[in-house]
């Protein structure tokens, strides 16, 4: 398949797309080194801003891509997927958004299509893994002899980022657990909810990636080159490991939520019991004050100068008797 190889432009920026919606264009030699000479290029990496209409037009006009691949780039995202069309491997995979993204600390997606001569990538937000591999290419610290090696590096970097997120969430849960055990849990409900929300997102992506790479490794083994099959097997194993790590953290989160709810229930029951005891103690005083508050004749102590104090003393004695009775039952 003949693909026109454009020269690298010095004006291209990894952060601002050019007039074609292109972030950067890198050429690589057969040894995996970056070169600016398109004539020496063994393969090429292009990265587009997929939300830019100029980039969408450029991808739509890229005749080297099969029609299903172009359609996968241009349609609205419906989640992660990996497919094979002719000799093109293409898909939509998750990555952590970059720190300077307007929607930082979340998961974004990058779309890709590769064969043995080209890797085309596209994204909406700045992504950590893509940017880390781009910097490694520009600094010459890593060599990529094929598009498959580069996409494996991007996914490996993404999985490392998600593993770091899981590690941070594990430390957060450790702190929450310590405070719950020490009965200093009153401000931990929202922190636990936030941690579980992040875990659900990452765990769901790990489950999807495990399934996708397993499917790629088993369903297209005879259609893909051995290096791509090996890449799929390695990434499937890593995603499966992170999936189980996420499952364990989710189980911890559920246990902590159950323990927190048990403590909240116990506190609520204790408050309700105190209110019930107060009601029982004050009930005799309420009845006595109600009886002596009736505006009718014949009330005792009506003409006595110490009548009020007698009624007050009787009310307090009855209240103390009720309190002592409840306390003797061992419930206060």
What this model shows, in words?
The longest helix has 67 residues, at 226-292. Among the domains are: 1-145, CorA soluble domain-like (Beta Polymerase, domain 2, 2-Layer Sandwich), CATH 3.30.460.20; 270-328, Methane Monooxygenase Hydroxylase, Chain G, domain 1, CATH 1.20.58. Helix content is 55%, strand content 13%. A hairpin with a 3-residue loop joins strand 6 (107-114) and strand 7 (118-123). The radius of gyration is 34 Å and the shape is rod-shaped. With 332 residues, it is α+β, with helices and mostly antiparallel strands. Strands 2-1-3-7-6-5-4 form a seven-stranded mixed beta sheet, with helices on both faces.
In terms of topology, how is this protein built?
Layout: E1 22-28, E2 34-35, E3 43-49, H1 53-60, H2 67-74, E4 81-85, E5 88-96, E6 107-114, E7 118-123, H3 128-139, H4 147-181, H5 189-219, H6 226-292, H7 307-328
Parallel strand pairs: 3-7
Antiparallel strand pairs: 1-2, 1-3, 4-5, 5-6, 6-7
